[in-house]
């Protein structure tokens, strides 16, 4: 075989190998429908599907999805996985009062350790407030939108206009104090409701039904213990963010983690820019790497700074092994190169190391 062809084969073999041992992600299972309602990834209704950080509940009696907060639960009325948002139905008023039924739970209280928070798309109306609320920065003026809402004959909130409960306020949620709660309490406001993406120019009777929109943080690659937990498009490697104490199914090079579909894909579904990104384009990295390696023949000098960040020790070892193999390939010029058979055997050996679960880090 002539040297240029062999060099090409060596390079091709290396690229293939890097693709094989690179970053990838894994085997996820979407949860079964709840009644007729799909449960998109990463939401999880049971321990065998979805991502366990994104638990919601399927009420088996009503076959409806429920969102559990710290002390209460709310029906989920819609889910939009592509923008990582869902809408829950706020509590209704207790009959003939201006008090919401979740006053006893102090309103909607999310667990701030979970990946869900209240979006800034919500316009909140606080009603039946005490005068204490007037010290807050909320808009509680007589022109505040909540008055128009209370005045509407079609909304069933007329009791909130009683003399005993006439202070109301309007604000846009999503600030630091409302990211995890819409608080109602005896000493503050005793009722609330919320509207998603409210067009305040519309007449009140054309407003949508009340809803509270909640978003979730993009899920990371699934956790794994061994390669068996990952699919063919991903490798079980240590998680650099958690200092290697956890392992995740990282996408093989050339594929990227798609947090919407929960798979390694060539093109990532992404309508929500803040929900995407985060993974390095390994294909580009490899191209640059191979190019530099061939240009400089200074393998160890180039491999470490480029790849050490965010890769496991095992991956670095694999890269190093590859680098030496590549060095062998580059020996072409010195008439001292390994045979293709040796290259193949070496690649197989490196693969076996890279995929072995017993390798010490
Ligand atoms: C407003 O809240 C107060 C305090 O909880 C309550 O006593 C009153 O009945 C409420 N107003 C209405 C109209 O329900
Ligand atoms: C919420 O539940 C916790 C534990 O069950 C309890 O300690 C806490 O008082 C409850 N808070 C409210 C506002 O109901
Ligand atoms: C909040 O969520 C974390 C993480 O799942 C959990 O460990 C913790 O017990 C939850 N807190 C409460 C009060 O439920
Ligand atoms: C309160 O809201 C009304 C209606 O949107 C607006 O006209 C008014 O300027 C606001 N007042 C304050 C103090 O922000
Ligand atoms: C609500 O109704 C009251 C009494 O009918 C009226 O004085 C007030 O101007 C109305 N407010 C709004 C914002 O429509
Ligand atoms: C709420 O979630 C969004 C998207 O996941 C995130 O960008 C934002 O930082 C979160 N806000 C807070 C206060 O945690
Ligand atoms: C691996 O990725 C390719 C390309 O995106 C895709 O066609 C294939 O179905 C994936 N395989 C698995 C097991 O996910
Ligand atoms: C490594 O991870 C950190 C934190 O996720 C990120 O900011 C950085 O861009 C990553 N670097 C590379 C080279 O992927």
TrEMBL record:
- Could you tell me which InterPro entries the record lists for this protein? WAK_GUB
Q: What is this protein called?
A: Wall-associated receptor kinase galacturonan-binding domain-containing protein
Which membrane topology term applies here? Single-pass membrane protein
The leader peptide range reads 1-26
Q: Which UniProt keywords apply?
A: Membrane, Signal, Transmembrane, Transmembrane helix
Pfam families found in the cross-reference section: GUB_WAK_bind
Q: Where in the cell is it found?
A: Membrane
Q: What molecular function terms (GO) are annotated for this protein?
A: polysaccharide binding
Record-annotated Wall-associated receptor kinase galacturonan-binding domain positions? 31-88
Organism expressing this protein natively: Acer yangbiense
Q: Name one GO cellular component term.
A: membrane
């Amino acid at each position: 075989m002539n040297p240029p062809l062999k060099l090409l084969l060596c390079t091709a073999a290396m690229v293939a190998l890097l693709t094989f041992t690179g970053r990838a992600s894994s085997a996820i299972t979407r949860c079964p429908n709840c009644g007729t309602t799909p449960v998109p990834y990463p939401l999880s209704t049971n321990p065998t599907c979805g991502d366990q950080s994104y638990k919601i509940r399927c009420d088996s009696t009503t076959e409806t999805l429920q969102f559990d907060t710290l002390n209460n639960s709310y029906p989920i009325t819609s889910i939009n996985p592509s923008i990582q948002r869902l809408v829950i139905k706020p509590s209704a008023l207790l009959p003939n009062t201006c008090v919401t039924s979740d006053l006893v739970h102090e309103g909607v209280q999310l667990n701030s350790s979970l990946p869900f928070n209240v979006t800034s798309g919500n316009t909140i109306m606080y009603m039946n407030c005490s005068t204490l609320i007037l010290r807050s920065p909320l808009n509680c003026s007589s022109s505040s939108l909540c008055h128009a809402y209370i005045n509407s004959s079609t909304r069933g909130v007329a009791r909130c206009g009683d003399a005993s409960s006439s202070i109301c306020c309007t604000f846009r949620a999503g600030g630091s104090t409302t990211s995890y709660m819409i608080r109602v309490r005896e000493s503050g406001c005793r009722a609330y409701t919320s509207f998603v993406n409210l067009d305040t120019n519309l007449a009140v009777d054309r407003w949508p039904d009340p809803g509270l929109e909640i978003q979730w943080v993009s899920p990371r690659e699934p956790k794994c213990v061994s390669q068996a937990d990952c699919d063919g498009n991903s490798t079980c490697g240590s998680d650099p963010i958690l200092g290697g104490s956890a392992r995740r199914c990282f996408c093989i090079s050339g594929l990227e983690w798609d947090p919407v579909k929960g798979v390694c894909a060539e093109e990532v579904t992404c309508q929500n820019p803040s929900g995407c990104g985060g993974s390095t384009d390994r294909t580009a990295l490899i191209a640059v790497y191979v190019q530099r390696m061939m240009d400089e023949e200074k393998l160890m000098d180039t491999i470490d700074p480029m790849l050490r960040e965010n890769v496991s020790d095992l991956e670095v070892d694999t890269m190093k092994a590859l680098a030496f193999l590549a060095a062998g390939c580059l020996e072409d010029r010195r008439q001292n190169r390994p045979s293709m058979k040796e290259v193949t055997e070496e690649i197989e050996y490196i693969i076996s190391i890279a995929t072995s679960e017993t390798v010490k880090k």
